[in-house]
Amino acid sequence: xxxxxxxxxxxxxxxxxxxxxxxxxxxxxxxxxxxxxxxxxxxxxxxxxxxxxxxxxxxxxxxxxxxxxxxxxxxxxxxxxxxxxxxxxxxxxxxxxxxxxxxxxxxxxxxxxxxxxxxxxxxxxxxxxxxxxxxxxxxxxxxxxxxxxxxxxxxxxxxxxxxxxxxxxxxxxxxxxxxxxxxxxxxxxxxxxxxxxxxxxxxxxxxxxxxxxxxxxxxxxxxxxxxxxxxxxxxxxxxxxxxxxxxxxxxxxxxxxxxxxxxxxxxxxxxxxxxxxxxxxxxxxxxxxxxxxxxxxxxxxxxxxxxxxxxxxxxxxxxxxxxxxxxxxxxxxxxxxxxxxxxxxxxxxxxxxxxxxxxxxxxxxxxxxxxxxxxxxxxxxxxxxxxxxxxxxxxxxxxxxxxxxxxxxxxxxxxxxxxxxxxxxxxxxxxxxxxxxxxxxxxxxxxxxxxxxxxxxxx
Length: 459
Known about the structure:
single chain, alpha/beta, Rossmann fold, CATH 2.40.50.140, six-stranded parallel beta sheet, five-stranded mixed beta barrel, 13 helices, 20 strands, 32% helix, 23% strand, globular
């Protein structure tokens, strides 16, 4: 049986796309390989949010070609959509399939290219060995206008064998893709297209299927998650899908990934605070604490708006995790701008940060801006914010010493402890070996190496 392997790069949405691609291949009767070296088809599902993401993809292509020269390398994802000719020119690449055609990837690789060489069996298409592929099929590019794209590739990231087979006890379900914002630094709208939403009935079907398979926590994600439902003929709001999941499924814990500041409504905050079935974990992208820089980024909020949102979240959920994305080194970012960002972070109740250094992306408005910040200065600003974030995270974690927390067990750590994740997104190491995918109550005894060290409480 022909084998395939999907290697994903980047965000949660990309991981979910990779799961959907794997599902496509399995529906064609192909077998999932456990490593690229043992696969006949290797799909690289790429990211392009930074220059280093492109470099990672190119390095992976070189590695796979070296380690498995006979395999067919198919490159898809955001890098493929942004620079298809560049990707196709790389040695070893058989096909480049952009996000515009990702929903047809398996059909392109297995079906349409070999339509005269396949036969239908029990509703599936039998795959002919790749040795039958001719030279003329190599380096084909499948790409079209992403803004005309209406498909939404969606499949939960989870192990089909069920929880407990590996450490994937918290499947991720993408319910939204694309973005209608035009932040001046961001290439994502140009490689993922307009905002589009997974229909509510499909979401409920997927969540119920996950629950039936034994999963107890599900993470919902998207490129601009808070815009879910706005593209429907009869528009819905993000709060509607959250309430329907609570009402129409018996999912024990729903975790919400990143939601833009504008979409943290009072209703959403109240819903999260009042329901024990929603994880007390908020991620609210900030990017900058400077009003001038936010305007240059074309972000749709100001620092005081952002502060107001976080203060409401903290007031409603005193022990919630609060995270953010922050960018340093945006063109023209002065020392004053950076200090405003640093001070705002210092004053707000963050429990963790994702700090990024600006990376110029071809075709974005910011790429043409003058006053690019020198790399050394941007790196130093990155270090300062990372150090500040580490201090805030440690202080937050230490506040739980002596307390009892709820967590879901993930996997065994070093043969002596069981790793778990708390409701409010803290890594926990539970003394002793415990079954995975179980909710436990644990008493925190200390903080060590970025984790809460705890013992299970049975009463």
